[in-house]
Amino acid sequence: MDDPVRRPTPVRDSGPPEGPTAEELLVEVAKGDERAFEQLYDRLAGPVFGLVRRILRDHAQSEEVAQEVLVELWRTATRYSPDKGSALNWAMTLAHRRAVDRVRSARASTDREQRATFEAGRGRPFDEVSEAVTASWERQQVRRCLSHLTELQRESVLLAYYQGYTYREVAEVLSAPQGTIKTRLRDGLIRLRDCLGVTA
After folding, report:
1. Are 47 and 87 in contact, with CB atoms under 8 Å apart?
2. Could you report the per-residue pLDDT of 93-131, keeping only the tens digit for each?
3. What is the rounded distance in angstroms from the CA atom of residue 45 to the CA atom of residue 62?
4. Which 3 state secondary structure label does DSSP give 157?
5. Out of 3.30.70.360, 3.90.1150.10, 1.10.1740.10, 2.130.10.10, which CATH number does the structure's domain 22-97 have?
6. Residues 6 or more apart from 149 whose CB is under 8 A from it?
C-alpha cells in the first residue's frame, strides 16, 4: 500500500481534538484506514515538528525528519498497543529518536569531511600538518571519553555543548526536570575532565 502522505510541511495544528482519540485513530491506521491517518496526521504533525525543530534547529531538516516520523507512524501502526502508552508519547519517542539519529549522522559526516581535508593537506608545511594532527587526536580523545559517559549524561552534554541548548531546552527535549539535567551535565563534565586528564 502506498504511503498516503501528501503534505510537504508537517506544521499544522487543528486545535483541540474532536471525535476519535489519537489512540483510536492509530488503531484504525493499523488496519489501513487512510482517512484515520489524515486525522491522526493533523493531530500529531504540530507536536512532532515542534520537538524535532528544538533538536535540529534547522527548519528544512526538521520538516524532512518530521515527515519521516509521520510516514513511520503509518508503516508501523500495527506495532502500537494502547496499553503501552498514548499515541502522542509513542510518536514523540519516534521523533526524538529520528532527530537524535540525524544529529549523530551530521556529526559523523563532519568528521569524515575533516579527515578528508586532513588527507588532502598532507603536502602542506609541517606546522599546519602538526596542528591538524593535534586537532584530530583531540577529537578522538573527546569521542573516546564521551563513550564512557552514561547515555543520559552523553545526550545532555551533546545537546548543551555541541548544539547550544540551554538547561531548560535540554530538559524539554529529554523530558526530565531541569535539576536532573544540571546534575547529569555536572557529573558528565567531571567524568570527561578526568578522562581527558584536564586539571581543574
Report:
1. no
2. 888 988 888 888 767 655 555 565 555 555 555 455 445
3. 12
4. helix
5. 1.10.1740.10
6. 157, 188, 191, 192
Q: How far apart are CA 22 and CA 42, in angstroms?
A: 10
Ranges 20-29, 51-60, 191-200: which has the least confidence: 191-200
Say which amino acid occupies 156. S
| Closest among 42, 45, 39, 105 to 69, alpha carbons compared | 45
- Cell matching residue 159: 545537546
59 by DSSP, 3-state: which?
helix
* Residue environment code for 126-150, b if the CB has 16+ CB neighbours within 10 A, otherwise e: eeeeeebeeeeeeeeeeeebbeebe
Residue ranges per structural domain of the chain = 22-97, 144-196
Q: Which CATH number fits domain 144-196: 1.10.10.10, 3.20.20.70, 3.10.580.10, 1.10.132.100?
A: 1.10.10.10
More confident: 192 or 52: 52
Task: Quick: pLDDT tens for 30-63.
Answer: 999 999 999 999 999 999 999 888 888 888 888 9
Amino acid at 47: P
CA distances from 79 to 68, 73, 97 (A): 17, 9, 17
